[in-house]
Amino acid sequence: MPRSPAYDALSRKIEARTARAGVIGLGYVGLPLAIAIARSGFAVTGFDIDPAKVVSLDAKRSYIDAVTSGDLALAIDEKRFSPTTDFGELAGCDVIIICVPTPLTRHRDPDLSFVEATARSIAVHLRSGQLVVLESTTYPGTTDDVVKVILETTGLKSGTDFFVGFSPEREDPGNQHFNTATIPKIVAGDGADALSLMVGFYSAAVKTVVPVSSNATAEAVKLTENIFRSVNIALVNELKTVYAAMGIDVWEVIDAAKTKPFGYMPFYPGPGLGGHCIPIDPFYLTWKSREYELPTRFIELAGEINSAMPRYVVAKLAEALDMRAGKALSRSRVLVLGLAYKKNVADIRESPSLRLIEVIEERGGKADYHDPLVGEIPSTREYQHLKGRASVDLTPETIASYDAILVATDHDQLDYAAITRNAPLIVDTRNVFARLGLAGDHIIKA
Length: 446
What we know:
Layout: H1 5-16, E1 20-24, H2 30-39, E2 43-47, H3 51-58, H4 69-77, E3 81-84, E4 95-98, H5 113-125, E5 131-134, H6 142-152, E6 163-166, E7 185-189, H7 192-205, E8 209-211, H8 215-245, H9 250-257, H10 282-289, H11 297-325, E9 333-337, H12 352-362, E10 366-370, H13 396-401, E11 404-407, H14 416-422, E12 426-428, H15 432-435, E13 443-445
Parallel strand pairs: 1-2, 1-4, 2-3, 4-5, 5-6, 7-8, 9-10, 9-11, 11-12, 12-13
Antiparallel strand pairs: 6-7
Helix pairs in contact: 1-7, 5-6, 8-11, 11-12
């Protein structure tokens, strides 16, 4: 079957790397992707609705750890990357990639408002010979049933005039071993021509491209990856509570179990789930499964267990204060160490630390935090009442002034020896003190 003129023209541009890419959403996913594409030889326009981001990027200041300001400056100086808030420039882009948030509503239903609004913005400027790619994590069917449908309201036809694909993001903030260009990339398209364009484009920017048969399959791949992690983390969180009641150290159990060279993969407990992916993405499949009248008991149970962890940790904190210091939590001052959802990054999305602070204060305690990478709590969807609180300085005097130190995020740059020496009570949710060989009767695992 002959291919359309639109396909032939775009394919030639991609092969010659004269196609201009547009990346919508310059956050933890979009900005590293934009720079990786620019490094591969394409010109890239980055779009964001936040003027402050564009101002920072224009000044060659990166706000994402995965992109150095030097890499950003090089891409700008070589005229390979330019940021803008003007979505009218979409008309000049040959490949348009959507990297916008896909949160949940209060009722744990998918919130596709950002995806839908972006698709409508693209539709205004849609023309023949463009490839539109969704990278935002979502339920199977979104690319074909939502994005493509909105774009086809223009009268242009997917697979003939323009092309639609899905490629799930696989960013891992703080990972020193993999980056956007070296993480294998799943790609799919609406038809064979769209898939061919997806493979051709992403192969230029990413070392390994893995094509799959449909957009829905690619969407399911991403959900499967995160559901796998959510369920296994929930399992070890539940084991932690059971083994703690038996006087067994779950971290010692895991360290011993992982010596088995087959049939076991270590996952570790914590104070709750954080990041944009694992706490949210599984519920996209839970929601979609209702359409087929099929239960997702594992997913929902994992969500319940992981969501209960902050309250479990605060209960252990209250117990430790009562037993070790003879003081009620309601009369105590607690310093939460680490606001970010994982070590060595500044990302606080869905961080359990925010919930820990909230639960401590619900029970009458006073909670402050220290995080060397997060100087102030920014505006968030769920914790607006915590906005503006600042990280306290971590000095020996400060440490000693709190009734308890609650370790929520084990950043490498924290001085754990000083914390051990000066804190009257430490509640460790990350096993960091044992890992570092620091011991004391005042250190409690939770």
